[in-house]
Amino acid sequence: MSETAAITATMECLDDFMAAFNARDVKAFEATFNMPSVRLASNTLTIIEPGYHRPGMFESGPLSDWDHSAWDRREVIHAGADKVHIDTRFTRYRADGSVIGGFDSIYVVTCENGHWGIKARSSFAP
User: Fold this and answer.
1) Domain containing 60 — which CATH number?
2) Is-contact 116 15, C-beta < 8 A?
3) Sheet with 44-48, side-by-side order of all strands
């Protein structure tokens, strides 16, 4: 696969990730990962396996007053045929449109067995 095609597949994966997250569709959300996947946030490393995400995650903690999120920036850092590093920034919003916060992050999206998915992410989001 060319780097251009890899970048296109990565952006589609990230679009699907955000759409599933905003829809609170846990099954579709997990389908955007290549598991196990790693998340580094709040100085904690989490290994994400299938079934890790639950519908209740949208009701408490940092997502308790969250309504939706949107990408502000997605810039390619490095790209190869089966892996792309993306410098991102996203904003979390309340239902009334007010901003909860904007967060810089790095996503690593890989192609495994023909599936493009998030393999790792490091974020300043809680």
Assistant:
1) 3.10.450.50
2) no
3) 44-48, 33-41, 115-123, 99-112, 83-93, 68-79
Q: Shortest CA distance to 17 belongs to which of 53, 49, 42?
A: 53
Rounded CA gap, 39 and 121, in Å?
A: 5
Alpha-carbon gap, residue 5 to 10, rounded angstroms:
9
95, 63 Cβ separation under 8 angstroms: no
Q: Which candidate, 26, 29, 20, places its Cα nearest to that of 68?
A: 20
| Number of compact structural domains in the chain | 1
Task: Look at the pTM and tell me if it is higher than 0.70.
Answer: yes
Over the stretch 47-93, which tens digit does the pLDDT of each residue have? 999 998 887 777 777 778 899 999 999 999 999 999 999 999 999 99
